Amino acid sequence: MSGSSIESAGVTLAQQMRDGMRRLASGVCVVTANNLLKQRFAMTASSVTSLSDNPPSLLVCINTDSRINQPLLETQSFCINILSASHQLVSNTCASPNTDEQRFEVGDWVKNQETGLYYLNDAEAVFFCEKVSVLQHGTHNIFIGNITKVSTSQAEATPLIYLNGGYV
């Protein structure tokens, strides 16, 4: 590989992996869920992937230490909001150590009357999902959800992109 070093002396493989993954541009999403007490949770995530179109499904990877992990484990529904470039503050707020209610103080959040889940009214796209499987691997749970409803913005697509520790 021209101009690069494959090995980094004295750096753990885990750190090398994190450094390498910083070079992969990814869309930014906010995952929302409710716990059994109907309290709402939101978390910024860049590890969201389409899985299949038959059945329409996606997956999201969540650190087991994250506050949203338990609500995702104990309930069946969750929501994925694909953020637009105008949502940097929403992304930062939902990635911060703010309390869960404070995470909903920024952004145009709306409660879906069918599911009780909150979603961003002006997101690029919103996917409502029913959890069908959870796989644990290392420090993360992989939540697989069948998509039950999709809402897509009619505006020109301007997704929020994260690369090398910052927004592009």
Describe the structure.
The chain has 168 residues and is mostly beta strands. The chain has one domain: Electron Transport, Fmn-binding Protein, Chain A (Pnp Oxidase, Chain A, Roll). Helix content is 14%, strand content 42%. A seven-stranded antiparallel beta sheet has the order 3-2-6-9-10-5-4. Strands 1-11-12 form a three-stranded antiparallel beta sheet, with no helix packed on it. Strands 7-8 form a two-stranded antiparallel ribbon. It is globular, with a radius of gyration of 17 Å. The two termini are 25 Å apart. Its EC number is 1.-.-.-. Pfam families: Flavin_Reduct (PF01613). Keywords: Oxidoreductase.
Number of strands: 12
* Mean pLDDT metric: 95
Task: Please give the radius of gyration in angstroms.
Answer: 17 Å
Please indicate the count of domains: 1
Going by helix content, strand content and strand pairing, the class is: mainly beta
Largest pleated sheet? 7 strands, antiparallel
Helix content: 10-25%
β-sheet strand percentage = 35-45%
Between the first and last Cα atoms, what is the distance in angstroms? 25 Å
Unreliable residue stretches: none
Query: What is the overall number of helices?
Result: 3
Q: What is the molecular shape?
A: globular
Keywords: Oxidoreductase
Enzyme class: oxidoreductase
GO molecular function: FMN binding; riboflavin reductase (NADPH) activity
EC number: 1.-.-.-
